[in-house]
Specification:
- The strands form six sheets. The protein has a four-stranded parallel sheet with strand order 3-4-5-10, with helices on both faces.
- Helix content is 40%, strand content 16%.
- 48% of the residues are buried.
- It has 14 helices and 14 strands.
- It is an alpha/beta fold.
- The N and C termini lie far apart (47 Å).
């Protein structure tokens, strides 16, 4: 596997290192990790020499990528696409039988008229922005091209729902670091989570070939907004859709928010997925949506975010007061915008 020294890669490595299902585990990263009893190969995943280093493996699970919110979007996109392209090309050259990639169920897009749940074969309808969702769309496009150009290579793509767990930091998890939960008038979101533990168990099935193709991963069912409020202890803030997305886009252009306004669609519109392929293979999530949300709330302790941007506790309090609640920065951030403009001037 790539990206084996940290994050999801490290969690997956720890699981398969002790599994009797795998004869040998090869861990690839740009530095050696702390999991023993595996074969470490230190290499940049974008290095064309990767093909030489995987000539003795049957399956490659690609978990090496840059999905940090504070990364430069252009540099992040270049890294992720080069990494995925190198992995797929190297697998074909080394005659690896199966490659497993992880993107996100966000590629389905979030819309007020989405069926709940979305079937796994639903169209990919996300907007191709400069955000992380755009990276996922490009990676999946590379996977589809690889299937045509390398017919001997089986490619499996896992699409997790809202990922939660220790170390997970996304625009979606930061939504729960705000004092209020943003909603838009006329639409109630449904929340579905995917705990890292369950993604790791799904990855094991994919590596073993028990599932293939496009595979959605998530907890059973979903939470209505009222349930989210009850579990989290957070109240909602309801705003008109036009005002919400228009102001969010202006804040993103000013550099105040780390993600484009379209990423807000995923916290206000439904994109619940049906994990039919995994269910047919006998897989069951070990986490419920309720338990995953409770852990997410515990992990957010002491953190504050406004429209996805981390702020200090004092700043969050001031923003909440001036904007009628944290995420109301969308309509009450005039002072912040002026400060950004003065700094640029």
């Amino acid at each position: 596997m790539t990206g084996a020294a940290s994050g999801i890669g490290r969690a997956f490595l720890a699981r398969v290192a002790s599994s009797a299902e795998f004869r040998r585990v090869v861990a690839i990263d740009d530095h050696r990790g702390d999991v023993s009893e595996v074969t470490w190969r230190v290499l940049d995943v974008r290095d064309p020499l990767l093909a030489n280093r995987i000539s003795d493996v049957d399956v490659l699970v690609h978990l090496g990528g840059d999905f940090a919110l504070d990364s430069d979007p252009a540099a992040r996109r270049a890294y992720n696409l080069r990494a995925a392209e190198t992995v797929l090309t190297a697998c074909a050259a080394a005659r690896v039988r199966r490659a497993v990639l992880v993107t996100s169920a966000m590629v389905y897009g979030a819309a007020p008229d989405n069926p709940v749940p979305l079937p796994e074969d639903a169209p990919v309808a996300a907007e191709p922005t400069a955000g992380i969702v755009g990276d996922y769309l490009e990676i999946e496009a590379l996977a589809r091209r690889s299937l045509r150009s390398h017919p001997g290579l089986e490619v499996t793509v896992l699409r997790p729902a809202t990922l939660v767990g220790p170390g997970v930091d996304t625009v979606l998890t930061r939504h729960f670091e705000a004092p209020r939960l943003l909603t838009v008038k006329g639409c109630s979101p449904r929340w579905q989570f995917c705990h890292v533990d369950d993604l790791v168990s799904a990855l094991e099935l994919a590596a073993l070939g028990a599932v293939s193709g496009v595979v959605a991963v998530g907890c059973d069912g979903w939470l209505e907004m009222e349930q989210v409020e009850e579990i989290s202890g957070l109240r909602r803030l309801e705003l008109p859709a036009g005002l919400t997305f228009g102001t969010a886009q202006r804040l993103h252009r000013l550099g105040f928010t780390p993600a484009p306004a379209t990423d807000l669609h995923y916290v206000v519109y439904p994109w619940v997925v049906d994990c039919a392929t995994l269910r047919a293979a006998g897989w069951k999530p070990s986490w419920t949506n309720e338990a995953a949300l409770r852990q997410l709330i515990e992990l957010r302790e002491g953190r504050h975010a406004v429209v996805g941007r981390r702020v200090s506790g004092k700043d969050a309090t001031l923003t909440a007061a001036t904007a009628a609640g944290a995420t109301a920065a969308l309509i009450g951030t005039a002072a912040i915008v002026r400060r950004v403009r003065r700094r640029r001037a």
